[in-house]
Specification:
Largest sheet: 3 strands, antiparallel
Number of strands: 3
Number of domains: 1
Strand content: 15-25%
Strand order of the largest sheet: 2-1-3
Helix content: 25-40%
């Protein structure tokens, strides 16, 4: 008997057969978006996204986090000087 994997997006939507899902990998150096690959989707470092809207939200959230990290680093450098 074959098993079926259940994939769930960050937003809570569960994958169906007709969805246009994408994958993302976030690293310290950036984000990579990839087309759907069911084998790759099983990897621990891969984020499963239900489509363009959630991919855009992830990118936007990451840009905000990077900006905050840059601002914190600048503040630390100013107080150390």
């Amino acid at each position: 008997m074959a098993s079926t994997s259940l994939f769930t997006c960050l937003c809570g939507v569960q994958k169906k057969t007709s969805n246009h899902w994408v994958l993302a990998k976030v690293t310290a150096r950036g984000i990579s978006f990839m087309p759907w690959d069911s084998q790759l989707a099983h990897c621990d470092d891969i984020i499963v996204l239900c489509g363009e809207g959630c991919a855009t939200a992830l990118l936007s959230r990451s840009l905000g986090e990077w900006k905050q990290a840059d601002m914190a680093m600048e503040a630390t450098e100013l107080t150390a000087a």
